[in-house]
Amino acid sequence: MHKVAVGLSGGVDSSVAIALLQRQGYDVAGVTLWLMKGKGQCCSEGMVDAAQLCEQLGVDYHVVDTRDLFQENIVDYLVAGYEAGVTPLPCSQCNKAVKFGPMLRYARETLGAQKIATGHYARVRQDSQTGRTQLLRAVDRHKDQSYFLYDLSQEILAGAIFPLGEQTKAETRRIAAELGLQTAGKPESQDLCLVEAHGSMSAFLDQYIQPRQGEIVDRQGQVLGHHEGVHHYTIGQRKGLGVAAAQPLYVVGLDPAMNRVVVGDRDSAVRSECTVQRANWVSIAAPATPIRAQVQIRYRTPPVDVTVIPLAIDETGNQRVKLVFDEPQFSVTPGQAAVWYDGELVLGGGAIERLPL
Question: Which of 219, 247, 264 is the last residue of a domain?
């Protein structure tokens, strides 16, 4: 059997992934990427659990220092995004720039492994007609993580194995218990690693962005209140505005140049279309004409029908796409990922661009 490097976070999912591959006869090695200092499943505590797991399974364990890469591609990326008035999605960026690509290179160049595996709930398959590696939703739709993997390249997808894609989370827990894995009863992480380490996204951002008091205004420019920084707000936010009004108000726009947070009623936070940048076509080649699909504009939002209209590719290779929703959508948030599907097949995705105020 081929050698496979398995990314280990110290959680139950990646633990079962490496155990399943070992049981299937693969020559496996555990790899943890050291992303940042502090507590959290991806850092110090996770390393200890991953090391103990590999000792239990009798396999080699490797820690790769990717802290500088994480700082540049995630921390600096997040801070710049929030300063610019957008709400970046760190997980997709991390999977592309920090986790899968560097781990695949390390596996091939250092470990002699041609494949990598993770505990993500997703599936891949080869399209015999086009030769492309296709990305599909996991069987367990409640745990499906294909949304966060849309930006992976064909090379990376071709070198990736997702052992948990065909099973449910309950089955994963059961297998962990049956195999006696020491991570079987470990609770699941509920937050981003940065939130786990710092307590909240606001607390994390406050370490990098200085408070800057500004105005909270309505769409006509009337001042309703004040804020301590636009980075504390996101499109569609209702709670924590500190503004009294006769009807519920939502954040409908962020204007970092004027240091203003714009609020309005719910209808003001509804959009019938948006554009995305840095589009990555996954399971199909980029089409030349509009296609019909279903799109998710956030991880936990249900897919909705959409027309995907390819736009011109600029001189940097940035593919932009226009999304026209069949029904207007609430809280279309710049910086978040829009991922479009054909049923369970991931067609492509991109980052939502800034919207006109």
Answer: 264
User: Which residue among 42, 43, 54, 94 is the active-site one?
Assistant: 94
Mean pLDDT computed over 13-40 = 90
Prediction pTM value: 0.93
Same domain, 334 and 236: no
Q: How confident is the model at residue 200 (pLDDT cuts 50, 70, 90)?
A: confident
Contacts of 351 (CB under 8 A, 6+ apart): 88, 89, 276, 277, 278, 335, 336, 337, 338
Encoded tokens for 43: 């850092």
With a CB cutoff of 8 Å and minimum separation 6, the contacts of 130 are: 284, 285
Q: What is the CATH number of the domain that holds 129?
A: 3.40.50.620
Residues 257 and 177 placed together within one structural domain of the fold: no
Assess whether 54 carries a catalytic annotation. no
193 catalytically annotated:
yes
Tell whether 68 and 149 lie within a shared domain: yes
Same domain, 314 and 341: yes
- Pair 28, 123 in one domain: yes
Task: Tell me, yes or no, whether 250 lies in a domain.
Answer: yes
pLDDT tier for residue 316 given thresholds of 50, 70 and 90 = confident
> pLDDT tens digits, residue range 112-154?
999 999 999 999 999 999 999 999 999 999 999 999 999 999 9
